[in-house]
Structures are given as C-alpha cells and as structure tokens.
Amino acid sequence: MTVAAIYARQSMDVSEGIARQLERAAAYIDMRGWDRGPEYVDNDTSATKTRGPKTAWARMLNEVGTGAFDVVVAVDLDRLLRTTRDLNTLIERGARVATVDGELDLTTADGEFRATMLAGIARFETRRKAERQIRANEHRVKKGMQSTAPKRRPFGFEKDGITHRPDEAKMLRDAYRQFVQGRSQGWIAKRWNDAGYRTSGGKPWTNGSIGHTLANPRNMGVLAYNGAEVGKAPWKPIVSEDLWRQARAMLSVGRTGMTRPSVTLLGGIAVCGECGGPMVASQAHGRRIYVCRQFRHVSRIQGRVDELVTGVLLSYLEREGVGTALTAAHDPSRALLQEGDALRARLSELASLFADGKLTADQVAVASDRIRARLKSVEAELAADRRSPVADFLGSGDVREAWERADVATHRMIVDELLKVTIKKSHAKGQKIFDPKTVAIEWRT
C-alpha cells in the first residue's frame, strides 16, 4: 500500500486554514485508496523565505526516502513551496508529490517540468506583489503615514501603532532617562521583567530587545522607512527628540550589561574626615552604620546621616531659582543635540539642491562626507556624555514628590553629582547623641 504524508502550511497564524487543508488532503488520500501517514504542519510560516531546521518542512525533507511515507500530499503546490530553490530540494531528494488539484510526480521529466513552471509563476507573483507593496509603502510614507500597520504591537502603543498604551509609555519614558543617566540595558530589562512586562512576542526582555526598542524612531514621533528617518509621524511622541537622539548615540557604542544595584544613599560616596577614604555601609550592635572602610576611623548611624543629607539637599533645591540654574548647568548635551539637528538639516538641504540641479553629484558627495564625519563625531560625544539626572529631576515639578518616586540608585547619582559629604569625628567625649556638625556638606556646583 502507498503511505501518503500530508504537508499543510499557512503564512499567517490562522488555524482554520490549516484544518481545512488537512481535511481536503485526507479526503484526497482516502479517494486514492492510500494509507494515511504522518502530518507535517507549518503555521505562521512563509514559503518565500528559507524554512529553518525546526520547521515541519525540514523534518519532512529529512524523512524522504526513510520509509516513513511514499508520497507527499498538499492541497496545491503553493502550500508546499513558492520558490524554485525548494523545488530543487524536493527533486534532489527524489520526493513524489501529489496535489489535490492534480498529481505531480517529480521523479519524471514531465512532472518536473510542470512543477518548475508552476514554481516560476509563483515566484513571479510573489515578486510582483512585493514590488507593488514597496511602491504603496513609499507613497504612504511620503504623505506622512506609517508604511503599514505593524505586524506586532510596538511596546508603548496599542495594536494600531498610533494610540499610546499609558503604562507602557511611562515605562519607556523612564527607561530613556535611566539609560542616558548610566543605567544599562540589562538593568532596564530586569526592571521590566520584574514588573511583569513582556515583549510583543510574549518573551522576557533582554539586552537586545531593550536596545532595539529604545532605538526605534517611532518613540520620538518620527517615521522610518528602510532604516532611514523620513518625516514626522501621525502619532504623538512618547519621548522628546533630544532624549531619543542621545540614547541612540549611546546605543551605537554598545552600552550593555547589568549594573550592580545600590542599597544605601552614601555608601562609597561619603568620605572619612580623618583619612579621606570612602565610608561604607556596615552593621554594629544591630544598627546600620557608615564606617571608614580602611582604618575604621569614624562611624555614624546610617539613618541619621541619610536624613540630614536628604533634608539639606531638598531644602536647597526647593529654593526659588535654584532649579532653573542647576538644570542649565547639568544639561551640557543641549549644544551637541542642536548641532546634530543642524547637520541633519544640511544633509536634507543638499539632497534638495541636487534634485533641483543646483549642485552636481560630486559636489554633494564632498559636502555630505564632510557633514557626516562631523555628525559622527557629535554622536560620539553625545554617547560619551552621561546625561545628568539632576536636569530631569528638577524638571519634574515637585522636588520632594520626585525624590519619593525615585529609587536609591537615582538618589545616589544626584547626591554624588551635587554634594561632597564628609563624616568627621566627634570631639565631645562620651557623646551618644547624633551631632549634625560631624557631617560636613559641600556643594560641588
């Protein structure tokens, strides 16, 4: 008896289509009086691209000639293959193929010829459809629309790719700020995973998926086509263009890896008033303390010191005019971002002058090379310039509320940037009450 295997494929995840294919193929096998063999099903799989080793297609090819089946049945040749490459693979394996619409025997010259013609036609139709789609996408982008609806929902957006999903948009904004302030992609991935967020494909976040998401121009409200920015998008940006460009510049130099979480405000930041060495967090007599790491010169109760430093810091930052002055002082990347925008505008202007016939191709090439070299240098400077957390912190409105929302690591960066904290010995013998005078606070700015 002839044993017939069934191959069913759907390019999109539509289970009903697969079920119908299996039903029709099984009816055909019964009509021919063959025995039903194994079923090979590829759902959400394109035949115009290489089908990998984990697909049912690859498993079926490996079992051709092993006795598992004598013939492969598909609803039609399109479900089985759409390229001459895959057809040649079947021919080389000596596979017999039967389709519900008409039997093809690839072991004969006539069957091979008919299959080659059909595969060529399928390839032609695929190429023509792709070319039409490319032209339609280009037309949509020129009109300021996204080329197509995203296949998977972009993080931060609803399925339409336009409407913001509020909780994810907030996570994105926080991630950009944390990244340019020195947090790693790995740290952000862990934070998102711990909060229960997953990628659009339902997988945990990794360094790579975080980097890919942060690098997407759609987050700053810009359309991109074939990797190039082409204009303003019809949706509202999630983050500012300045913040996105600085993060993108930093991503280009490969900022990955996990940062070690900090658990105290001043551990490793405060210094000993006797030797100048770092004060570290420790424990003594059941209490958390800061102590001179190397010589144990000085120790102070951690909670009292933290409370004093935080109070002095926030009281000063709440003074009128201080926020504005510090924000300007701690945002050195502004000039670089403005220069980058100007350079990109000059590149666009060159393209327009060439299109109008006012510049030759050689003139454009020389000028654009010079501009791109400077733009690359600007982006490198942006990547090296860690954005200060102070500017974002002070721009949040209520300083104390922002402090409460921020984590300890952000507190540490702000304190380290603005203050020098020195913990001194108390000269009052036997004094057990905390003396604020033993904590010297100097402003770096």
SSE blueprint and pairings:
Elements: E1 3-10, H1 15-32, E2 35-43, H2 56-62, E3 71-74, H3 77-80, H4 84-93, E4 97-99, E5 102-104, H5 109-142, H6 166-180, H7 185-194, H8 207-214, E6 222-225, E7 228-232, H9 241-251, E8 271-272, E9 279-284, E10 287-292, E11 299-301, H10 302-317, H11 322-329, H12 333-355, H13 361-384, H14 389-394, H15 399-405, H16 408-418, E12 419-423, E13 439-443
Parallel strand pairs: 1-2, 1-3, 3-4, 8-12
Antiparallel strand pairs: 4-5, 6-7, 9-10, 10-11, 12-13
Task: Explain the overall architecture.
By secondary structure, the chain is α/β, with parallel strands linked by helices. The protein has 4 domains: 3-123, Resolvase, N-terminal catalytic domain (Rossmann fold, 3-Layer(aba) Sandwich); 166-251, Putative Large Serine Recombinase, Chain B, Domain 2 (Hect, E3 ligase catalytic domain fold, Alpha-Beta Complex), CATH 3.90.1750; 271-329 and 389-443, no CATH class; 333-384. It contains 16 helices and 13 strands. The strands form 4 sheets. It has a 5-stranded mixed beta sheet with strand order 2-1-3-4-5, sandwiched between helices. A 3-stranded mixed beta sheet has the order 8-12-13. Helix 1 links the parallel strand 1 and strand 2. Helix 6 packs across helix 9 and helix 12 packs antiparallel against helix 13 (361-384). The longest helix has 34 residues, at 109-142.
